[in-house]
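Might I ask for a little of your time on a matter of protein folding? Here, with my thanks, is the record as I have it:
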Amino acid sequence: MNIALDCDGVITEVPEFWAVVSKALIDAGHKVYVITDITPYFATQRLQELQEYGIHYTHLICTKNKRQACEELQISYAIDDMGRKYYPAIKEWCPCEIIKIPSP
């Protein structure tokens, strides 16, 4: 299964939790994509943050179009704090289940 995690507002809120979950998912044979709404210019900084948080992932995707990334990567579940912003018409087109994490 392909699972997408958002960084800001999801991983950053409880990184200890997501470190355990992301490792368990990968250990179970799933792919974990961190799909983040930043330009590739900031990828090095994001990689450092993920390492500091202890997040396990198979791919880091830096894009301004999360919807397209989820379609292309055949994401089964996307966990994001901005669900309706990035996935406005979920039932009409979405190739995956969106799990919206409330922003604090």
In short: The two ends are 28 Å apart (CA to CA). The chain has one domain: 2-81. The first strand starts at residue 2 and ends at 5. The longest helix spans residues 15-27.
